[in-house]
Amino acid sequence: MTVPLRAALYLRVSTVRQAEHDVSIPDQRKQGETWCASRGYQLVETFVEAGASATNDRRPEFQRMIEAGTSKPAPFDIVVVHSFSRFFRDHFELEFYVRKLAKNGVKLVSITQEMGDDPMHVMMRQIMALFDEYQSKENAKHVLRAMNENARQGFWNGALPPIGFRIVAAEQRGSKTKKKLEIDPLHADTVRLIYRLFLEGDGVKGPMGVKAITCHLNERRIFTRDGGRWGLAQIHAILTRTTYIGEHRFNTRSHKDRERKPEGEIAIMACPPLIDRKTFDAVQARLKSRDPRMTPARVTSGPTLLTGICFCAKCGGAMTLRTGKGSAGGTYRYYTCSTKARQGKTGCEGRSIPMDRLDQLVAKHLEERLLQPERLETILASVLDRRQERTERRREHLAELHKRITETDQRLNRLFDAIESGVADLDAPGLKERIAGLKAIREQASADAERAQAALDHAGNQAVCPDMVRTFARAARQRMRLEGGGYRRDHLRALAQRVEVADKEVRIMGTKAELLRTLVAASGGKSVAFGVQSSVLKWRARKDSNL
Questions:
Q1: What is the Cα–Cα distance from 324 to 334, expressed in whole angstroms?
Q2: Calpha distance 510→367 (Å, rounded)
Q3: What secondary structure letter does DSSP report for 260?
Q4: Of 36, 67, 415, 523, which has the fewest CB atoms closer than 10 Å, so is most exposed?
């Protein structure tokens, strides 16, 4: 009895509008299921990507499908798409993933562009991918030009409007409803209040800063548009946005890399002014005068032991250094929750702890618990096992890359031989593109091979033995403390990357991989703080080490 091929459907649309007017998800699903049934294929899984571009691989369902298709054994034999443009609109990436699936015995097929596996059909698929990529870029260019012109005519292009404005229908052009911004009376007074507080204050105090305004609004339960609490970034955005003087700036940043665009590419959309220009200019001048790049800040960051890695366990906000005066007139220093400092008690009830007490608590725990040879060996055992497995996988991957380079060189040589012998014409349709594609694949594989080899060489120099662990534990305990009292900041941060302060406990966290990297660096004569990442939130994501 013949076993039917197992098929997986991949369905994608770029936008909601495309789902309504183009080949929608239900239509793609129906055609795919009918196509599989007519050929006797067993449909085992369907991957649905709604609202994702095919110009890159940053698509969750696409990555889940690729991961399944390259696992061993693969749960399906073919991936079925409506057209190759549903899979990818980049000819190089299309070929890369087609080959990646093919190496695991999984084939990509299109129900509207059926093709074989011979060189002619492969070339046709590549040519179609080139046209899809070109069409995608041209469409993006035309759409952006139309949106810029739409903004210049005073019409809103979409997205949530700035607080203080709302979207209203302006006119009907065929089937399209053109929209504009108008002042939202419900929130406009809040915006005016923010400007007034910044320039004049609340009548009790003088002009307020961004942080003071944030606390003022939150403490008086003046909520944001969605009922949430205000933050510093929201207040600053309101104070600097030209939309409030009737000039909304559209197309200010690149969609792909968020880089700021030149002024000549930015479209200015006229809208009703909510703030007069004189007031706006006064605010900008005051903001500029308070800019740390123009005026030095009153408090500069110093070598405080835990700032940057210490966080409030209740809200996740950073614990920052604050100072105060005691009843005897002396000054004391303590760590306190920054969310409370920014938003007031409505943001977080907060927790404060004397700086010396927390510093000693963390350092003592690291000395007495973590920096013991037996404890270090236990922690690092699983990491070393995983590193060995990873090294084996890298060797296999490197061999695969060398094989791909060899195969690509052989194919290029056959093409060059055919051209030299007159069997093939260099000006034949698609031949130059095919050669360029093969060269790109070879260059990419060569670059990947260099990185893989460098990673293998680096891993080979990081062998760890029990003597290294004991030496490291002894040296780290000695070096952490300063002769005149206190602790070496970088040495402590090499061992603990996150400290969380709760009401009744302090949690000290770090990753095993970072600990191993520090150990190897110290054993090689480098600083114990080698490779420390100074600020990474949610560092111990899997909660895999020292509580």
A1: 8
A2: 14
A3: B
A4: 67
Half-sphere exposure (Cβ direction) of 545: Cα atoms closer than 13 Å:
29
Cα angle value 114/119/122 (rounded, 5°): 45
Task: Return d(Cα 101, Cα 97) in angstroms, integer.
Answer: 6
Residues 377-388 pLDDT 10s? 776 666 666 666
**Within the chain, how many helices (H) and strands (E) appear?**
17, 14
**CA distance linking residue 529 with residue 526, whole number of Å:** 8
CA–CA distance, 341 with 410 (Å, rounded to integer): 65
DSSP reduced 3-state for 94: helix
Spatial separation of the C-alpha atoms in residues 431 and 429, rounded to whole Å = 6
Q: Which of 498, 489, 500, 499 is nearest to 529 (CA)?
A: 489
Where exactly are the structural domains of the chain?
A: 6-140, 165-290, 310-353, 389-460
DSSP letters spanning 183-246: E-HHHHHHHHHHHHHHHT-SSSSS---HHHHHHHHHHTT---TTS----HHHHHHHHH-GGGGT
**How many residues are there in the chain?**
547
Report whether 454 contacts 397 (CB < 8 A). Answer: no
> Under 8 Å CB-to-CB from 44, ≥6 apart: which residues?
6, 7, 8, 75, 76
The neighbour count for residue 170, using CB atoms within 10 Å, is: 16
Residues with Cβ < 8 Å from 349, sequence gap 6 or more? Answer: 314, 340
Question: Which backbone phi and psi does 234 adopt, to 5 degrees?
Answer: -65, -45
CATH architecture classification, 165-290:
Alpha-Beta Complex (3.90)
The helix/strand/coil state of 9 is strand
Within 10 angstroms of residue 529's Cβ, the number of other Cβ atoms is 19
Sheet of 331-337: strands edge to edge?
319-325, 331-337, 352-354
The residue written with tokens 């560092």 in the block is 539
pTM for the full predicted model? 0.45
372: CB partners within 8 A, 6+ apart? 473
pLDDT one-digit tens code per residue, 224-252: 888 888 988 899 999 999 999 999 999 88
The phi-psi region of residue 92 (left if phi > 0; otherwise alpha if psi is between -120 and 50; otherwise beta) is: alpha
429 upstream amide cis, omega within 30 of 0: no
- The secondary structure element, H or E, covering residue 414 is helix 373-420
The two three-digit tokens of residue 417, written as one number: 């031989």
Handedness of CA 108, 113, 119, 122 (dihedral sign): negative
Segment 82-91, tens digit of pLDDT: 888 888 877 7
**Nearest-angstrom CA–CA distance, 474 and 480:** 10
**Structure token pair of residue 201:** 């204050």
Same fold, 6-140 and 165-290: no
The CATH number of domain 6-140, selected from 3.40.50.1000, 3.40.1280.10, 3.40.50.1390, 3.40.50.150: 3.40.50.1390
DSSP tag of 264: G
**Between these two residues, 343 and 6, which has the higher pLDDT value?**
6
